[in-house]
Design a protein that fits this description.
The complex is a heterodimer of chains A (371) and B (356). Chain A has 371 residues and is α+β, with helices and mostly antiparallel strands. Chain A is 63% helix and 10% strand. In chain A, the strands form two sheets. A six-stranded mixed sheet of chain A has the order 1-3-4-2-7-8, with helices on both faces. In chain A, strands 5-6 form a two-stranded antiparallel sheet. In chain A, a hairpin with a 2-residue loop joins strand 3 and strand 4. In chain A, helix 3 crosses helix 4 and helix 9 packs antiparallel against helix 10. Chain A starts with a strand and ends in a 7-residue tail after the last helix. In chain B, helix 7 packs antiparallel against helix 9. Chain B is α/β, with parallel strands linked by helices and 356 residues long. The chains are: A alpha+beta (371), B alpha/beta (356). At the A-B interface, helix 11 of A face helix 1, strand 1, helix 2, helix 5 and strand 10 of B.
């Protein structure tokens, strides 16, 4: 905000006060609201793409648009006057006795009114939208006029960054920021869960691959109960059939035939199970791919919001293997003694400054032979 | 005690979630070295916009360092540290509280510049002048309380020596802007008798240079800041130094002035008080180790960047003490901060927790 000025000094309703006087009036209003404990809202309204519109339609369009903004705000509010002034190209206005709900209603009314504004240039209609930042004296962190204005301006910047034609509160943006973070955490845990299922499915697939079905896989097809079955068949033939090589051959063929049938049935069952598993793995892979893209989009959104809010994640500390002085360090004993004395000196300093605030265990440490 | 603590420190696991800082809170510059690899330094100036208009112009509530200096006409400018300590006296005078607020903001800013993560605790060791009063230490602790989670103070020259791993039979000369600290290290924690502080430091050179230039060129116009810039660029005590010609306005017209001799003479005013202090510390040391002490003099601080200062001190030591060897540390700006960081890192974790 480099410039503080009325829209037009010729207009009686703008030009009565200098910008400094307007700010002073606002400050008085703010102090009064704080003293008597009533609600006070601040709206910071800017015309979206104003510079662009001016480039397209000439400099007179700018003044017209700003005047229209002012008229719209006046017509959308009650008759009583309210302190307002232009800061850069944004209209800053204070609304005494207007709480959060009232301010938001006013914002909706102004946005609606903006869409109905009829501008024309060379016969072509110009669509105008506003970005509005809202703050009230009940918002967290609002202590005085400066912080109130700051929050309203931050809200306006957020509304503008989000594409305009909307109103935003910095507090609301913080909540959205927290919401995105929570969603991101939920997505991460969902991904972890899905990852477990995929890994499990993949391990089943690996077993089946190892079995090398349908060409091989004897380990899966032949089971211990087959031997018991063969023995029972042999016993059955032994009791009912005659002896001799023919009977023996017949018995062997019957057993082999029966076992082949059983193995074939098992093979079909395993193949059916494999197809089902493959379908499930495929579904899960698709789900994971979608969750990954959703996660990437959310992370991108989070980065954007962090950049918008000027959040610096910081640089993590580079940790050493050992915290504190390593016993291998040169002169470790002497250095540890020095460190201990620095600590003791700091404890004594605090004791001297605030007697009684230091825990007794620290006082006990004052004795160098303690331990 | 020591063995037990060494073992306990050795067995301690990595304590993730802690950022260690070494801070050199200086009159002229404030430097920080952090355990995340970040190193930053800013001029110790804090400025607050004078009114709403300047606030709107500057877009900030507080400006720091060179940024504050550049906009000083729109700001209430504070240099919260003078002679190495926070400029506040006992009692709650307006000046004291403003300086305390500026010092607190400066610390908050230097900690912010160390880029701590939001989820990390910040433990800091702050270097203070060797003979800072208890009142000044209290002021620094108060200022630090909002910026960090646990803080310890230690003597600046000691932190320089600790950072250089020179703890035995060493004399440290730490030339700052407000004070020059001399400290004798003999393998244990230095006591009051091992430390001497005087005010023949960077600011003194500025004053001397101002007086000399004003006397020789009364028509020249300049500010303290201009003098400081000239000094930082050309300071030298060498007999054969490059001629220094600076442009200073005379009735609005930039005019060249040769200030070579003024700079040399002003910088040389530091040498006798330093050698006086060294003589006292050496003479009161065990005679058997005096020779070793003389040959291990460590020159640190921003003032150590004066060209030829080490040789000039050696020459005067030779004349008065029969010999001596002065070593200049490699990083004058970060010497104190690096040492303080090393102390912070080596300090057992339990100590930090007890001072939270």
């Amino acid at each position: 905000m480099r410039d503080i000025r009325p829209v037009s000094s010729e207009r009686s309703d703008w030009g009565l006060f200098s910008p400094e006087e307007l700010f002073e009036l606002m400050r008085v209003e703010c102090t009064r609201a704080s003293r008597y404990g009533y609600d006070l809202s601040c709206l910071c309204v800017s015309i979206d793409r104003l510079g662009h519109l001016q480039d397209l339609y000439g400099s007179t369009s700018r003044a017209e648009l700003l005047d229209a903004l002012h008229e719209l705000l006046k017509s959308s509010t009650r008759d009583s006057d309210f302190p307002r002034c232009m800061v850069d190209d944004a209209l800053v206005a204070l609304f005494p006795h207007t709480g959060t709900a009232g301010a938001l209603t006013l914002c909706r009314r102004v946005l609606k009114g903006a869409r109905r504004l009829g501008f024309e240039s060379d016969g072509r209609p110009i669509q105008v939208t506003f970005s509005i930042g809202v703050a009230t004296n009940r918002d967290a962190g609002v202590r005085d006029l400066e912080s109130l204005l700051q929050q309203a301006q931050a809200g306006m910047a957020l509304a503008r960054a989000a594409g305009g034609d909307r109103f935003m509160r910095q507090e609301q943006a913080s909540n959205e920021f927290d919401q995105i973070r929570r969603e991101l955490e939920d997505l991460r845990s969902a991904l972890d869960r899905q990852g477990d299922v995929v890994r499990e499915a993949a391990s089943v697939r690996r077993v089946l691959d190892l079995a090398d079905l349908p060409g091989g896989g004897q380990a899966l097809l032949e089971r211990p109960e087959d031997r018991e079955f063969a023995a029972r068949m042999a016993a059955l033939f032994g009791t009912g059939a005659g002896s001799g090589p023919e009977a023996e051959k017949l018995r062997q063929q019957a057993i082999e035939f029966a076992l082949r049938g059983i193995h074939e049935e098992r093979r079909r069952s395993i193949e059916r199970q494999m197809r089902e598993n493959e379908g499930e793995v495929d579904t899960l892979r698709r789900r994971v791919a979608k969750l990954n893209s959703s996660l990437a989009a959310t992370e991108e959104e989070l980065r954007r919001v962090m950049a918008l809010k000027d959040v610096d994640p910081g640089v993590a500390s580079i940790y050493r293997t050992v915290q504190g002085l390593s016993a291998d360090a040169a002169n470790a004993k002497a250095r540890l003694d020095m460190l201990n004395r620095i600590f003791q000196a700091n404890v004594e300093l605090r004791q001297n400054l605030q007697p009684g605030s230091v825990p007794a265990e620290i006082r006990a440490k004052k004795d160098p032979d303690h331990e | 005690m020591s063995d037990k603590q060494t073992k306990s420190a050795e067995s301690a696991k990595k304590d993730h979630g802690v950022l260690y800082l070494g801070i050199d809170l200086g009159t002229s510059r404030t430097s920080v070295a952090a355990s995340n690899g970040v190193r930053e330094t800013i001029s110790s100036y804090v400025g607050y916009p004078k009114d709403v208009v300047s606030r709107k112009l500057l877009q900030k509530d507080v400006l720091y360092g060179d940024d504050a200096l550049a906009h000083r006409l729109s700001l209430n400018l504070f240099r919260p540290l003078g002679e190495g300590v926070i400029q506040c006296k006992a009692g709650d005078t307006p000046d004291s509280s403003q300086n305390l607020r500026a010092a607190r903001d400066l610390l908050v800013e230097i900690v912010r510049r160390a880029k701590p993560r939001k989820d990390e605790l910040v433990y800091a060791v702050i270097g203070v002048p060797a003979q800072a009063s208890i009142h000044n230490k209290d002021a620094i602790l108060k200022a630090a309380r909002e910026a960090v989670d646990s803080v310890m103070l230690c003597s600046e020259p000691f932190s320089v020596a600790y950072g250089q791993d020179m703890l035995d039979d060493v004399l440290v000369i730490d030339i700052g802007a407000g004070t020059t600290d001399l400290c004798r290290m003999h393998g244990t924690m230095p006591e009051d008798a091992d430390q001497i502080t005087n005010t023949y430091a960077g600011d003194h050179v500025d004053e001397e240079l101002t007086k000399r230039i004003r006397k020789k060129f009364p028509q020249a116009q300049f500010s303290v800041q201009m003098i400081k810039t000239i000094k930082e660029k050309h300071s030298s005590v060498m007999d054969r130094m490059e001629p220094v010609e600076v442009l200073l306005p005379v009735q609005g017209k930039p005019t060249p002035f040769d200030v070579t001799d003024e700079i040399r003479q002003s910088c040389r005013t530091l040498i006798p008080p330093i050698v006086d202090g060294l003589s006292k510390l050496i003479a009161s040391f065990d005679p058997e180790f005096q020779e070793r002490l003389k040959n291990r003099v460590l020159l640190a601080g921003g003032g150590s960047q004066i060209k030829g200062l080490d040789t000039a001190i050696e020459l005067l030591m030779h004349e008065r003490l029969g010999g001596g060897r002065v070593l200049r540390i490699e990083e004058p700006i970060y010497g104190g901060a690096n040492g303080a960081l090393k102390i912070a890192h080596d300090m057992p974790g339990e100590f930090w927790k007890k001072l939270r």
